[in-house]
Amino acid sequence: MTHRYTTVTVQVPASTANLGPGFDAIGLAIDLWNQASFKLIDKGYVVQADGESADQVPKDETNYILDSFFQLYRHLGEEIPPGVSLRCINRVPLASGMGSSTAALLTGLLAANAMLGAPLDKFDLLDLASSIEGHPDNVAPALFGGLTIGAIKDDQRVMMHQYLIPVMPILVVIPDVSLLTEESRALLPEMIPRKDAIFNHSRTPFLIEALRSGNLSLLAEATRDRLHQPYRFPKIPGSRQALERAREAGALAATLSGAGPGLFVFPGQKRKSIAAAMLQAFEDEGVTARAFQLASSNQGASVSPLK
Ligand code: HSE
User: Fold this and answer.
1) Are 171 and 275 in contact (CB under 8 A)?
2) I need a labelling partner for 252 at 20 to 30 A (CA). Which of 70, 112, 198, 220 fits?
3) Is the pLDDT of residue 286 over 70?
4) Quick check: 174 pLDDT over 80?
5) Are both 250 and 138 inside the same structural domain?
6) What pLDDT was estimated at residue 226?
């Protein structure tokens, strides 16, 4: 095994997926960044974590970032290094619907790829990470930035298009409810009525058009969905009410963020009052929640080899 570099740092943004009707296909990068530095050491795996939920992050080789780092070596048929020191600063809340596991996956893959002298390009990494996740809707925006549409083709390569859109204010409200992506996907039915499929696919092009052109008056209708949210709301107490309150308080659009439990809002001009109304809606249901005032990002992940 030849390492081109032995120390690299990686930055990966949060992301939101679906944006309403674009289930498993549409995603948007968010200007909130996890950072990690990797250093090859003689022996053993050492993890130091700071930031969001740092105490919940495994500190040994079961850490998902390290596991993803190893996955790239396995994918390339390379021997896994006997020692790695990983330091991470975590800003994307875990299990929130803001792409924290995608960020961890890409962090590991990008670091290993850089150390090995970049045998894979970004599109290869998009294919690999999307096949691991099963869908490209968080991977594509986190890797490339901006608004992305993506589909996994029969040959397992990802067809992807990136739109660099004007930076949009974003509000994410995360209730203190545990709902892992796997559990959230298990809530979805195998079969859906044709009218629901039509409901979603007829709105999805308007969603892209609204964000691409800046015709934000389309957003309210263009972010409606019948494929996943109705099945997920019952597992997130207060979510339906909080989205309703966001709209009443003037939000341009309000949806589940990815598989939840976080809620994603394009707040327009009234971010503070919308956040307050949503937090109150959760409180009324006895659920504590946190609001994050953020923005979209046209930047995706980056890697800096240091040595
Ligand atoms: N599209 C995915 C879902 C995003 O809604 O389940 C979370 O991985």
Assistant:
1) yes
2) 198
3) yes
4) yes
5) no
6) 98
Reference 29, options 131, 181, 143, 127; nearest CA is 143
145 and 207 part of one domain: no
Which pTM value belongs to this model? Answer: 0.96
For residues 105 and 39, state if they share a domain.
Answer: yes
* Closest alpha carbon to 20 in 213, 220, 291, 234: 220
Same domain, 108 and 206: no
Ligand 1 atom closest to the CA of 102, numbered from 1: 8
d(C-alpha 246, C-alpha 180), whole Å: 24
The answer to whether residues 149 and 22 touch, using CB atoms and an 8 Å cutoff, is yes
Give the 3-state secondary structure of residue 128: helix
Q: Find the 259 Cα to ligand 1 centroid distance in Å.
A: 5
| Whether residues 56 and 91 fall in one domain | yes
Q: Mean pLDDT over all residues of the chain? A: 97
- Find out whether the beta carbon of 239 lies less than 6 Å from any atom of ligand 1: no
Number of domains in the chain: 2
- 75 and 95 both lie in a single domain: yes
Range of 199's domain?
169-295
Residue 42 sits in the same domain as residue 149: yes
Task: Name every residue whose Cβ is closer than 8 Å to that of residue 214 and which is 6 or more positions away in sequence.
Answer: 165, 166
Helix (H) or strand (E) holding 161: strand 158-163
Six-digit token pair at 64? 């998902």
pLDDT at 228 over 80: yes
Do both 203 and 280 map to the same domain? yes
